[in-house]
TrEMBL record:
A Pfam match: Tim17
Source species, domain of life: Eukaryota
GO cellular component labels: peroxisomal membrane
InterPro entries, per database record: Pmp4
The protein's name in its UniProt record: PXMP4 protein
Amino acid sequence: MAGGGDSLRALLRAANALLQQRRYHAALAVIKGFRNGAVYGAKIRAPHALVMTFLFKSGSLREKLKSIAQATYAHSRNLAYFVFTYKGLLAAQSRLQGKKIPFHSFLAACIGGWLVFGDNNPINSQIIMYLLSRILFGLSRLAVEKGYIPQPKQDPFPLVAALVWGTVLWLFEYHRETLQPSLQSSMTYLYEDSEVWHDLSDFLIYNKRTDSK
C-alpha cells in the first residue's frame, strides 16, 4: 500500500517537473487550451440551455435533460477543438518564422473557425452572432482610437440602442423567419403571448393555460 503511495507521489513530482520545462511550454499550452475551452464551453452553455429549454421547449423531463446535455456537449467540444486548433497553429507559425506577428492570430483563427464552426447549426450560429456583435463594437472603438473616424462629441450608445431595437422588432413583426429560432421564441413570449389571456390564472400566474377550459 505504501509502495503504491510512493509511486503516485513520484509520478506527480515527475509531472510537475515536466510542466516547468520551458521547451514544452507551447505544446502544454495547447493541451491546457483544450481543457479550458471544454470547461468554459460547458459553464457558458449549461445554464443557458437549462433556462431556454425549460422556458420554451415542450416534451418530457427526460427529453429536456437530453437536449440540455447535447447542447452543452456540442458547445464544450467545439470550443475545446477551436482553442486547440488555434493555439496549435499559432505555435507552429511562430516556430516557422521565429517570431509571432499579428497576422498569425488572424490566420490561425480563420482556419480554426472554418474547421470547427463552419457547420451551420443552432449552436454555432448563436456563437458567431455573439462574436459578431462584439466585433462591431470593437472595430468601432479601434477606428476612433486610430483616428479613422472622429471621436463622437457625445455618447453614441443611445442612438445605437434605438436602431438595434427598432430594427429587431421590425424584423420580428414583418420578417420573422430571418431571426434565429431562439430569438423568435423569446420575442414571441414577450410580445405576442402577452396579448392573450382568459382569466387571472394565465394573466398573472401562467403564460398559457394548459387545461381545456
